[in-house]
Write a structure and sequence with these properties.
By secondary structure, the chain is α/β, with parallel strands linked by helices. The chain is built from twelve helices and 14 strands. It has two domains: 6-10 and 262-363, Aspartate Aminotransferase, domain 1; 17-261, Type I PLP-dependent aspartate aminotransferase-like (Major domain) (Aspartate Aminotransferase, domain 2, 3-Layer(aba) Sandwich). Helix 5 runs parallel beside helix 6. The longest helix is centred in the last third of the chain and has 21 residues, at 263-283. The chain starts with 5 loop residues before the first strand and ends in a 14-residue tail after the last helix.
């Protein structure tokens, strides 16, 4: 057995032993009723985690979170639709790119990285273009660690008779999010982040009525045609294509743990770990991006000290048993990211801070001043 690595990257995350063990379930043909029953249970549990009621359902895809996001964007929009993308980070820009590559008429509300969504600006933007029918937004923007107020976005969208697509890939299962309470039309997630499952499965949750309406929309894809997946999964209790059977076993085990713990409790566990981490970083003289009220529980963006290269820090910490994550694009070179998702505990956080503190003494003594927008002590 290899030594355990504490994965402080934002997915895939460390998992419980019962989830890993479930991968070794029996060989099973995906066209047999036993798999249909497994898939139906997973769909039902996913819907429950998302806050869906009897009028909601979910579709599970074999693929990364991006596959489910692309399936939703290309399937949920009618032929004459117009999409407004809220962009305040890398993954907001990705939503725009997905729509653009498929030729969907799309407009970007570009706020700037780490800039909170202004409901009044969003409302004015929608009012200025009545042809916009859908709004897409990222809940947890992991490029910065920002948590967007998707309930406020959905409320504005409803006021303008628009539907909302929420990228909840890095939030569902831990952050405060409820498809019913928050008025979300389409919620997209993945198994391998806050739900603490294995990579390889993603899902879409919506109302049964919305899924039924997909048949009237143009098919802009084949494998990623959400209507095709819904029809087979809901009507025939069968997958449209060959699924990752072992990962379904593991996902059900992870969902059972998530439902037993409860979304509020898991979110509280993540917030406690994040608070412990951020306090320790402050004691080491390191600065964290974003004001506290905008930070997600699952990720922290940290400024690199002067004279310390990310590559050196990553290499040294990995030797100590910790995997950290590089920042992206405009934050690359100046920041790194630390996740508190997954099966980690206070001892992991304390051991990480001790290792980091020792390494900073040898890698570089400098400490940089905070000058990014929203950066605080």
């Amino acid at each position: 057995m290899s030594p355990r690595l504490v994965l402080m990257n934002p997915g895939p995350v460390n998992t419980q032993e019962s989830v890993r063990a479930a991968l070794g379930g029996p060989d099973l043909c995906h066209r047999e009723p036993e798999f249909g029953e497994l898939m139906s249970r997973v769909r039902r549990k996913v819907t429950e985690v998302c806050g869906g009621g009897p009028d909601h359902t979910s579709v599970v895809l074999t693929g990364s979170g991006t596959s489910a996001l692309e399936a939703t964007v290309i399937s949920a929009l009618p032929r004459d639709a117009g999409l407004l993308v809220v962009d305040n980070g890398h993954y907001g820009a990705r939503l725009y790119d997905i729509a653009s590559v498929h030729g969907i008429r799309c407009r970007r509300l570009e706020l700037g990285w780490g800039v909170p969504v202004d409901a009044d600006v969003l409302d004015r933007t929608l009012a200025a273009d009545p042809s916009l029918t859908h709004v897409a937004v990222v809940h947890h923007e992991t490029s910065t660690g920002m948590l967007n107020d998707v309930a406020a976005v959905a409320a504005v969208a409803r006021g303008r008779r628009c539907r909302t697509i929420v990228d909840a890939i890095s939030s569902v299962g831990a952050e405060s999010l409820d498809i019913t309470r928050d008025g979300i039309d389409w919620l997209v997630g993945t198994a391998n982040k806050c739900l603490e499952g294995m990579p390889g499965l993603a899902f879409v949750c919506s109302s049964r009525q919305a899924f039924e309406g997909l048949s009237a929309h143009p098919a802009r894809g084949y494998y990623l045609d959400l209507n095709r997946h819904y029809r087979t999964q809901a009507k025939a209790a069968a997958p449209a294509f060959t699924p990752s059977v072992p990962v379904f076993y593991a996902f059900e085990a992870a969902l059972d743990l998530a439902l037993a713990e409860g979304v509020p409790a898991r979110g509280g566990r993540y917030r406690a770990l994040a608070g412990r981490l951020r306090s320790g970083l402050a004691e080491l003289g390191l600065r964290v991006l974003l004001a506290p009220e905008h930070r997600a529980a699952g990720l922290t963006a940290v400024r690199l000290p002067d004279g310390v290269r990310y590559e050196d820090l990553h290499r040294a910490l990995k030797r100590e048993g910790f995997v950290i994550y590089a920042a992206q694009e405009q934050l690359a070179g100046g920041f790194f990211r630390l996740s508190t998702m997954g099966a980690m505990d206070e001892q992991d956080i304390d051991a990480f801070l001790a290792a980091l503190g020792g390494l900073l003494l040898s890698l570089g003594p400098g400490r940089s001043a905070a000058h990014e927008i929203g950066e605080t002590e």
